[in-house]
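stage 2 :: seqdesign
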């Protein structure tokens, strides 16, 4: 090991491991429960019908499970912050690690101001005459403070915000079932809405594919377990447990929740057609609670949605900060950003991310067109990250076996390989291509650019690094599959 590698390893241990198993499990679960479930699930039902929505969310849930097992196998072997960039650079090509890292950091740095802007819109439900920037500023200061204190503070805050969302879904399911059977709401509903008009399947396979996109955005955030592994007190235990828990909870929460919504609200309802991420009055959850006779439903759901949005911004700040820190350690970002404070927080990476988020937020007020392009550029980033995770795991496992290792050496190994990563690759490509097929049909080049902008950006990052540093796809017999609890080097030793 040369001197530079030792310095990287020493610096990487400065990030303290303060996330408990319960934190990791709840963060992974809470990451995929947000406005995608509370509000956007209604638009999925209206577009594909109850049966089409259940099929789309079911298939996407299966894909996410395999994605999590792929990430889990790598994260227990090499638990680090900013895992996606490190794995892509270590198992595939340093240029891919560079592109993946900056792509993911950019996504969250842009998404944080989107979330804090949404906080202001949600607050207008109670205080419509208050200037929006006040609530957005308060939200930004709050999440920066949470992220600046300690990793355990972040973990505890996320645990309780995620717990609020989980309890809400459980109550919703209980109330929904009672309403279906007429115990609440006054009359028996049963399954009549599942066969109403063209239901259960509306629009056929094209509609199901279009709902894949909605479902994919709903599930984004589950990959946070790979980021948290680097600061987990016991990643060999917490990561597999989080994966196991998340799969069953996704099935329970998403599939059952959509079943309840579809049973109680016909897919032709204008409320579902008008689903908006910030209009709590037409959230399917609000409608079901009101149907059951709960008068304060809208106000309660607004509070839950507010919690979900703040939780998303909080997780986004954490993920982007750790990704930037990891890239600095691996040579993909300025070395100065790898510095940490006494509490183990990479404060310089946090400051840079906060500045970018603040500038983006200001641009949303001063120049809405610039803001629109920034948001569009980050639109497909989550799916690109999933694609990178799948291909990294495919390469890792093949290299691991080719070099004579046994699966028994792994602390956790994904079952059904290579079916899992191959399925993830296929569905990710399908979702990315299926974002807006009508734009291609009408040759609307401006809409195509807005929708697919993140794809050429990643390609430019990849090729730019590859050309400048003359990197190559690492041969399987040269891939470093050794287990480690440090960041390691992501580029070739000189």
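stage 2 :: out
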């Amino acid at each position: 090991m040369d001197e530079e590698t030792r310095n990287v390893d020493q610096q990487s241990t400065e990030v303290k491991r303060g996330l408990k198993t319960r934190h990791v499990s709840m963060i992974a679960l809470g990451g995929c429960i947000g406005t995608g479930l509370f509000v956007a699930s209604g638009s999925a039902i209206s577009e594909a019908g109850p049966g089409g929505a259940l099929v789309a969310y079911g298939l996407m849930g299966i894909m996410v499970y395999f994605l999590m097992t792929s990430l889990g196998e790598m994260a227990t072997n090499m638990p680090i912050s900013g895992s996606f960039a490190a794995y892509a650079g270590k198992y595939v090509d340093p240029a891919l690690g560079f592109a993946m890292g900056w792509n993911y950091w950019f996504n969250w740095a842009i998404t944080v101001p989107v979330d804090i802007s949404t906080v202001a819109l949600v607050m207008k439900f109670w205080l419509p005459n208050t200037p929006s920037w006040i609530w957005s500023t308060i939200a930004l200061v709050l999440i920066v403070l949470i992220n600046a204190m300690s990793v355990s503070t972040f973990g505890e805050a996320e645990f309780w915000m995620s717990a609020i969302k989980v309890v809400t879904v459980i109550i919703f399911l209980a109330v929904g079932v009672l309403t279906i059977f007429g115990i609440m709401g006054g009359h028996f509903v049963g399954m009549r809405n599942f066969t109403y008009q063209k239901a259960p399947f509306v629009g056929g396979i094209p509609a199901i594919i279009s709902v894949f996109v909605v479902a994919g955005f709903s599930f984004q955030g589950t990959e946070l377990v790979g980021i948290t592994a680097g600061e987990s007190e016991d990643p060999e235990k917490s990561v597999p447990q989080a994966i196991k828990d998340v799969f069953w909870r996704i099935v329970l929460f998403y599939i059952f929740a959509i079943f309840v919504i579809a049973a109680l609200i016909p897919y032709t309802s204008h409320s579902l057609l008008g689903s908006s991420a910030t209009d709590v009055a037409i959230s399917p959850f609000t409608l079901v609670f009101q149907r059951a006779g709960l008068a304060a439903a809208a106000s309660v759901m607004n509070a839950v949605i507010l919690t979900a949005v703040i939780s998303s911004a909080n997780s986004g700040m954490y993920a982007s900060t750790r990704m930037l820190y990891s890239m600095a350690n691996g040579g993909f970002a300025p070395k100065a950003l790898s510095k940490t404070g006494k509490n183990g927080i990479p404060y310089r990476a946090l400051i840079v991310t906060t500045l970018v988020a603040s500038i983006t937020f200001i641009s949303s007020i001063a120049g809405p067109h610039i803001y629109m392009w920034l948001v569009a550029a980050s639109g497909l980033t989550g799916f690109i990250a999933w694609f990178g995770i799948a291909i990294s795991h495919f390469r890792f496992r093949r290299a691991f076996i080719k070099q004579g290792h046994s699966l028994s050496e792994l602390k956790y190994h994904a079952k059904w390989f290579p079916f899992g990563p191959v399925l993830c690759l296929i569905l990710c490509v399908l979702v990315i291509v299926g974002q807006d097929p009508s734009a291609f049909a009408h040759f609307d080049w401006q809409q195509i650019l807005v929708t697919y902008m993140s794809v050429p950006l990643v390609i430019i990052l990849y090729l730019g690094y590859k050309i400048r540093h003359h990197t190559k796809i690492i041969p399987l017999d040269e891939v470093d599959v050794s287990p480690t609890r440090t960041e390691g080097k992501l580029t070739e030793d000189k």
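stage 3 :: structure notes
- Confidence is low (pLDDT under 50) at residues 1-14, 485-494.
- The longest helix spans residues 41-77.
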